[in-house]
């Protein structure tokens, strides 16, 4: 049983296109996150939702827009893709906001912008 | 969040204990120590966390010094599948806003 799943696993697209990455968790968690791992392998938080409400929004271009249709899903939509958006994007979930909850990560979506 | 310092890389023989150190000398009283790992091409995986006391679970043990300025993650019998980047993270409890802040981690290579 997959706890946190993401689709697609790989995404290759051209500059200027709009794309979405989907994330679903079947753990019954209230909080979901999006992280970005760049080519230097640094993992950085992008967004966090708790009970479908945005609670963390790091300095991310407004071309990135998360959407949470329900507590089990947090999708990431990216407009006007740029070369610098190429990275691996990870979705995660946790039982709640704060400590001492651990986070469970999905397998990642490798986005390549050409 | 307090800054952590970890060695860049370590090797461990298969079947031996892997001891991964982490310095967090500026840790404050309400900060937890978390360990995650990332196996190549996979998402990060939670291992263990602690505040003051030593902790043990089915994956590892966490030893935190009495002054809390450093800790050690112990994988008791390392296998090839434990080859990964291990991240030591300290997190302060901030209401409604506690993301994980990943550093560079330690690349552990388990050797047959």
Question: In short, what is this structure?
Answer:
The complex is a heterodimer of chains A (114) and B (112). Chain A is mostly beta strands. Helix content of chain A is 0%, strand content 55%.
Walk me through the topology.
The complex is a heterodimer of chains A (114) and B (112).
Chain A: E1 4-7, E2 10-13, E3 19-25, E4 31-37, E5 43-50, E6 53-57, E7 64-70, E8 73-78, E9 87-94, E10 104-105, E11 109-113
Parallel strand pairs in A: 2-11
Antiparallel strand pairs in A: 1-3, 3-8, 4-5, 4-9, 5-6, 7-8, 9-10, 9-11
Chain B: E1 9-13, E2 18-23, E3 31-38, E4 45-50, E5 55-56, E6 61-64, E7 70-75, E8 84-92, E9 106-111
Parallel strand pairs in B: 1-9
Antiparallel strand pairs in B: 2-7, 3-4, 3-8, 5-6, 6-7, 8-9
Describe this structure in words.
The complex is a heterodimer of chains A (114) and B (112). Chain A has 114 residues and is mostly beta strands. Helices cover 0% and strands 55% of the residues of chain A. Chain A is globular and about 40 Å long. Chain B is mainly β. Chain B is 0% helix and 46% strand. Chain B contains no helices and 9 strands. Chain B has strands at 9-13, 18-23, 31-38, 45-50, 55-56, 61-64, 70-75, 84-92, 106-111. A 5-stranded mixed β-sheet of chain B has the order 1-9-8-3-4, with no helix packed on it. A 4-stranded antiparallel β-sheet of chain B has the order 2-7-6-5, with no helix packed on it. Chain B is globular and about 40 Å long. The termini of chain B are far apart. The interface between A and B is medium-sized, with 26 and 24 residues.
Structural descriptors:
A: 114 residues, mainly beta, 4-stranded antiparallel sheet, 11 strands, 0% helix, 55% strand, B: 112 residues, 5-stranded mixed sheet
Low-confidence stretches of chain B: none
Sheet of most strands of chain A: 7 strands, mixed
The helix/strand class of chain B is mainly beta
Lateral arrangement of strands in the main beta sheet of chain B: 1-9-8-3-4
Q: Helicity level of chain B, as a percent range?
A: under 10%
Cα-atom Rg of chain A, whole angstroms?
13 Å
* Euclidean distance between termini CA atoms of chain A: 34 Å
Helix content of chain A: under 10%
Portion of residues in beta strands of chain A equals over 45%
User: How much of the sequence of chain B is in beta strands?
Assistant: over 45%
């Amino acid at each position: 049983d997959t706890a946190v799943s993401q689709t697609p696993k790989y995404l290759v697209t051209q500059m200027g296109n709009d794309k979405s990455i989907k994330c679903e968790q079947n753990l019954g968690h209230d909080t979901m996150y999006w992280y970005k791992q760049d080519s230097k392998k640094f993992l950085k938080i992008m967004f966090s939702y708790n009970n479908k409400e945005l609670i963390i929004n790091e300095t991310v271009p407004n071309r990135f827009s998360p959407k949470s249709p329900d507590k089990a899903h947090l999708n990431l939509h990216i407009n006007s893709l740029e070369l610098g958006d190429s990275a691996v994007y990870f979705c995660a979930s946790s039982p709640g906001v704060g400590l001492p909850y651990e986070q469970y990560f999905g397998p990642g979506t490798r986005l390549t912008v050409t | 969040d307090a800054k952590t310092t970890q060695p860049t890389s370590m090797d461990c023989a298969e079947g031996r204990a892997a001891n991964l150190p982490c310095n967090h000398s500026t840790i404050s009283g309400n900060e937890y120590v978390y360990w995650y790992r990332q196996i190549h091409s996979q998402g990060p995986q939670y291992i263990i966390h602690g505040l003051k006391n030593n902790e043990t679970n089915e994956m590892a043990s966490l030893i935190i010094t009495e002054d809390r300025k450093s800790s050690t993650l112990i994988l008791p019998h390392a296998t090839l599948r434990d080859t990964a980047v291990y991240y030591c993270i300290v997190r302060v409890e901030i209401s409604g806003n506690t993301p994980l802040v990943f550093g560079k981690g330690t690349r552990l290579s388990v050797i047959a």
